[in-house]
Amino acid sequence: QMADPFLYDTGERSHYGCLGYEVQIEHIKAYVCRPSFFTDKAVIVVHDIFGWLFPDIRYIVDLIAGHGYITICPDFFKGTEPWKTTDHWADFADWMKRHDPMKVDREADVVLKYLKEQCGAKKIGIVGFSWGGMAVHHLMLKNPQLTAGVSLYGRIIRDSEERYNLLNPTFFIFGEKDHTISYDQITLLEEKLKQYCMVAYKIKVYPGQVHGFAQLKPEDMKPDDKPYIEEARKDMIDWMKMFI
Prior knowledge:
alpha/beta; Rossmann fold; eight-stranded mixed beta sheet; 6 helices; 8 strands; 31% helix; Carboxymethylenebutenolidase homolog; CMBL; hydrolase activity; AB_hydrolase_fold; Dienelactn_hydro
């Protein structure tokens, strides 16, 4: 039997009282959190299959905002149903066809326009998790307005050369025990980036970590995983700080 795609233990999650607020931007809703001081730096967060309302992703938005960025997580599913823990994996391929992480360009443009015109953002980065990690990989190939990107455990799709010609610095984060991404794929990504990528990039694999590891709220972390989760988040923020 094939391993369930993208599945990580969403288990009983603790509730989370968000620090931000929701906005409507053209045809999409978004969750926004701002730092307590003025900044012209922003970060877009791309959610995973569980959507923009999932507590873990809102926690990440607030966390990044705390480092001095206007941070926004738009609903890239445009009001359609996210994947739910009660859904059947047999339907996953069909669901993915309707939620294609390579078809996020219009929404990204709407959000970039909002950040520049309404929030005064001059430099904008992007961070994405799982489904969102795939979207980030795609957008870093297509959208020069994104100054830097971090793709966390996005499955590596399509072995075509244009998939490696990134426009701006991109950091790829993976968990060593992620059953959705094989080590061979990561090795191939590394080889191809070396060959085709003209900008700064980085690949890092975190020991013992499974799919979805970097999104957990502190109270949902296992003690053994905590150092790696914290390291991955620090690395993610450091990458942003280097370029944005």
